[in-house]
């Protein structure tokens, strides 16, 4: 019997015919990378292929000496007759779904994605395919995102209130993606915006690619306490509770993450505010994305896989679960390893 | 209810106690008396009785959201809170209702006598009137189990500020058997006339655990020592020829202890005693498990009265001849208590004898004998201390005997609730019986948040099988389980029941094969059971 176009091995999602892997979690010769987050773009591969906007970030994170090439959305690279192309996933800057075609059969490995246009990264495009590989980090009906304008209105109101109270505002999100989405989503006329070093370095890479970001100030020890009053400070979750925050005047802390949709995780973080803002798809979006592909089969990777797969099967969509080492958004509530690995 | 929902959101959004008290005070400043009364009732665990079965709520919620019931149930397991799950899966709507908190609670109370069909109609109507947060609060009122991260103490502080009543006075006024349905805000909180407050207990003074050495708290001559009795903390009140027995959880338990009925004859009116209610036979305390069989029964049968007779070991007197004694020093109260029990002897009341000691070392030795005496350890009380309210550091210390421990293997895990929802935090532990692992205890407390995250990750990666919300995991992690007591039990597979088992520490140094065995557990049972 012919092996399937893509298969799940202990190293990653593997295309045997082309001898390449997509987002491998163990070192391989040829890695096609959906996006630059640490759980998808790992250290140690001999060769990387990514989208143009991911390349400098991957180099920043993994070293300038790695062997890496990049291409544009829609551009095709053919390897031993198998056609690979990138298509916008709407997850973070440079994020892509990988379309794999061989003899008319099409598979799409979607990496991580969201359907809402965040106004910063290229919005998700549904791709017709036979088999769709999807995450389901938030694959439960309790996860429902509000439009981001509403979320940012709430964040702005909170920031304004803190400023009126003479306080600083600390908001966390992972350094690549969420941090820039926050930066571009808030109202910069409210006050100054500071960033943690991990985020500022990522910002620098992004600005060097010619992508415009709102102005930020790097948090350094020389800055006087008084200067932070009324400002917004964007930080990765791992910075909370460390000596890094010592120089700040009284402040309120918030977390922006899809997990903040649930009260348990929100309270567990012991922060003042939780804002439901995710770069992953909510339950309804997952279903919409799957339907839009017109696929015959869905392979569910990370998240509430068993539950979501059962739901799909009950709805007449043939689905199976494969295990991977992707983490979804766990780093934002201190449960993942990704953020630490990359910083 | 909008102001109440706003209050709830504000309380939920801060971790700072000062801020919580401030937002609650400002809520009280504008709320109606009826709403205030209900808010006090809710925050002091006096909700109206549940009027709708939760199984029905789950069905209706799944149907409203167009979900199969199993998917709703799975979501509930992960969210860990039924009210929240229902609020989240329901289609999002704008709020279009202006009912007050009191009106909504009345709405809920009125559901009780209705048929399932009529209840469904009403509850669905309510869900569709409310936005997500309001729906959550409504569901909380409907299902109970309300935890807002605000202690009764903080609630009382905010109310004291609002009503301009002294906090301790208010704590006392809010105790006892009142219900919002039948009370009046003014009478409860503001009125100084307490004629109708015959049954009202005093707030208990709670001891802090002594973690270090006793010499750290001062010199021995400043202190009294007693045994820490292993029973139910209680307050016995005799006023106007009537008896009231209160447990520490502010529960009126008079009916559970008919033996005390004669005390109305034996003791003068206006007497309030604080002590430990314990099973006691032939001059000796019985084990706590005897007590458990007794309190878990709905009716106290003759057989139980015979097999588990109780007494109160009194250690404090809070009121004598109607006079509040709490401001008097410990030794003086002690003297009054001794005199009272001498002048009014009854076999239902014993005095908690003082433990004689001249230096701390005497007590170190005495404490080691605790288990054979069927007591939990020692109590240290400062001689010149007044009787305080709640858990206050400094004057009363409990110095418990070290717990029993055993090293066990984790074999099952379940998700937690509330703050720990979505994490595997509730574990079942087993010991070896030859090649087999026999489960013997469940425990969930005792790990740090960091450790919980790591165990959670282990569970997710090492699941062998799933039964509903329970996962069986690879037998690999070893934990030291601490417990206070052990008893034979036919209801447990292992044949033993542990008292208050909890995780003492994670034995990362120990492979599963080296965990303890059923034999080891049986030895502990033979020695301490």
Account of the protein in words:
The complex is a heterodimer of chains A (343) and B (529). Chain A contains 9 helices and 19 strands. With 343 residues, chain A is of the alpha/beta class. In chain A, the strands form 3 sheets. A 7-stranded mixed β-sheet of chain A has the order 7-8-9-10-11-18-19, with helices on one face. Chain A has a 6-stranded mixed β-sheet with strand order 1-2-3-4-5-6, with no helix packed on it. In chain A, strands 14-13-15-12-16-17 form a 6-stranded parallel β-sheet. In chain A, strand 7 and strand 8 form a beta hairpin. Chain A starts with 6 loop residues before the first strand and ends with a helix. With 529 residues, chain B is an alpha+beta fold. In chain B, strands 4, 5, 6, 7, 8, 9 and 10 form a 7-stranded mixed β-sheet that branches. Chains A and B meet through helix 6 and helix 8 of A and helix 5, helix 6 and helix 18 of B.
Q: Tell me the major beta sheet of chain B.
A: 7 strands, mixed
The rough form of chain B would be described as globular
The CATH topology assignment of the largest domain in chain B is D-amino Acid Aminotransferase, Chain A, domain 1
Strand content of chain B: 15-25%
Give the largest interface pair and sizes.
A-B, 25 and 35 residues
Cα radius of gyration of chain A in angstroms:
20 Å
Low-confidence stretches of chain B: none
How much is the average pLDDT of chain A? 92
Q: Tell me, what is the CATH class of the largest domain in chain B?
A: Alpha Beta
Total helices of chain B: the number is 19
Radius of gyration of chain B: 26 Å
CATH superfamily of the largest domain in chain B: DNA ligase/mRNA capping enzyme
What's the total count of β strands of chain B? 22
Instruction: Supply the CATH architecture of the largest domain in chain B.
Output: 2-Layer Sandwich
Largest sheet of chain A: 7 strands, mixed
